[in-house]
Specification:
3 domains; FAD; flavoprotein; alpha/beta; 423 residues; globular; FAD/NAD(P)-binding domain; FAD/NAD-bd_sf; binds flavin-adenine dinucleotide; five-stranded parallel β-sheet; Reductase_C; single chain; FAD-dependent oxidoreductase; Enolase-like, domain 1; 26% strand
Length: 423
């Protein structure tokens, strides 16, 4: 009988977590991690929080190099997987090699969506997903600005903060009336907008790009549909992402509008092929039906669950999604997903970079966001996990004692889900 083997395509947060968990759980077969990126697997979040410089200097490895050796995980870096053969149970690599694959894990992530306007293929119109993108952006900014960012998502705004801290002129062009509305709702989004404006970011909302104009293959000006013209030496486009699901064609696996649909254990429509991390369309309890959860913590936990499952100990990722973002030296943390019909309690601090926001749903905290409030966010996360009923007035009150609420719950003074709030 052939030795079992698992080929993981994509060696980032989800793929590396899968490989490490396989070994932790005693998986005895061959484990191979394939990635088109030539660098030792590295963390993406730092890419938008510091300007890397050129090359791979400053990359933060997900695991030290010896971990792969110690755990007998084979790294195939700088090689692209080109096909998954469902009949032969193999994975084809760009160099022509064919790997036996009793199990395949697709951890291929997302790629940035391109803007469909004239000039979008100019050499200084960039996006940010990997180390080579970060190097190109750093190179562009080394000669100064102006930097024009198209799209005000978290990654774009982190880049805006880093550039402003480097004294670079930054304009952000956002199609929505307010950035981040979908992620954190209008009130918290308003605080984040204020924070960027205070630091000198020119934030143009309800604005869209008509074309990129310039000469010799370089953009010199971003032209908006309302006629405004923005001088630019570097443009970074962050207008959404697409799942990297090309391998589903050869593998003959279903896709949906989010990515690669998986069951609660990460299995695709073909039981020996799994999908994990950003590319997976998951049936997570926090999502109305299913969808992608595009956060580092989710990718890592989902990958870990898939590794455990393949090793014979089925596991699910069901925790409330957690994300963070660093801007101007302050850390924003979000647990859960705010919904438009939640009841918001916002406790503001002395500046827009200090706040704590609770979204109350059916008498419980459904989601929380805090900036410079990591201890409080940590306590609320535990209140959420334990399903401790909360009272709006209490959360909004001046004498809020979150640790006290948790203590009451532990001591049985405060009821849990399904019972009434203790007096
Ligand atoms: C710049 C940036 C900053 C971020 N900051 C934060 C943050 O502050 N907080 C937070 O919670 N989340 C953050 N995220 C999100 C987080 O990093 C992602 O959720 C996480 O990296 C997803 O991991 P993944 O393994 O699913 O996919 P990815 O990290 O996208 O990795 C997929 C890998 O698959 C490889 N690949 C794809 N196709 C193939 C193929 N055919 N053959 C070989 N290899 C292939 C790619 O080269 C890539 O290395 C950030 C993301 C980026 C890009």
């Amino acid at each position: 009988m052939n030795k079992p083997s698992c080929v993981i395509i994509g060696a980032s947060a989800a793929g590396v977590a899968t490989a490490v968990e396989l070994r932790k759980r005693g998986y005895a077969g061959a484990v191979t991690l394939v990635d088109a990126d030539p660098n030792i697997p590295y963390e993406r979040p730092p890419l938008s929080k510091t300007l890397l410089g050129t090359g791979s200097r400053g990359l933060v490895p997900i695991q030290p190099a010896h971990t792969y050796r110690d755990l007998d995980i084979e790294l195939r870096l700088g090689e692209r997987a080109t096909a998954v053969d469902p009949a032969a149970l193999t994975v084809h690599l760009s160099g022509g090699e064919v790997l036996p694959a009793g199990r395949v894990v697709l951890a291929t992530g997302l790629s940035p969506r391109r803007l469909q306007v004239a000039g979008a293929d100019a050499e200084n119109v960039l996006s940010l997903r990997d180390a080579s993108d970060a190097s190109r952006i750093a190179e562009g900014l080394a000669s100064g600005g102006p930097l024009v960012l198209i799209g005000a998502g978290f990654i774009g705004l982190e880049l805006a903060a880093v550039a402003r801290e480097g004294g670079i002129d930054v304009t952000v062009v956002e199609a929505q009336a307010q950035p981040l509305n979908n992620a954190v709702g209008p009130d918290v989004a308003c605080l984040l907008t204020q924070l960027h404006r205070r630091h000198g970011v020119k934030l143009l909302t309800s604005a869209t790009v008509a074309e990129f104009a310039g000469s010799a293959g370089r953009v010199e000006e971003v032209r908006l549909t309302d006629g405004r013209r923005l001088p630019a030496s570097t443009v970074v486009v962050g207008v959404g992402v697409e799942p990297r699901n090309e391998l589903t064609v050869s593998a003959r696996i279903e896709v949906d509008s989010y990515g690669i649909p998986v069951n609660e254990f990460g299995q695709t429509s073909r039981a020996w092929v799994y999908a994990t991390g950003d590319v997976a369309s998951q049936p997570h309890p926090e999502l109305a039906r299913r969808g992608r959860i595009e956060h580092w913590d989710a990718a890592q936990r989902h990958g870990t669950a898939v590794g455990a499952t393949i090793a014979g100990a089925p596991a699910r990722y069901r925790e409330a999604p957690y994300a963070w973002s660093d801007q101007y030296g302050a850390t924003l943390q979000i647990v859960g997903r705010p919904r438009p019909d939640d009841d918001l309690v916002l406790r503001e601090g002395a500046s827009p970079s200090e706040f704590l926001a609770f979204w109350i749903r059916d008498g419980y905290v459904g989601a929380v966001a805090g900036m410079e409030a990591s201890r409080d966010v940590g306590v609320v996360k535990r209140l959420m996990a334990a399903r401790v009923p909360v009272d709006r007035a209490e959360l909004a009150g001046r004498d809020l004692d979150l640790r006290g609420l948790l203590k009451q719950h532990r001591n049985g003074v405060r009821a849990t889900a399904g019972s009434k709030l203790a007096g």
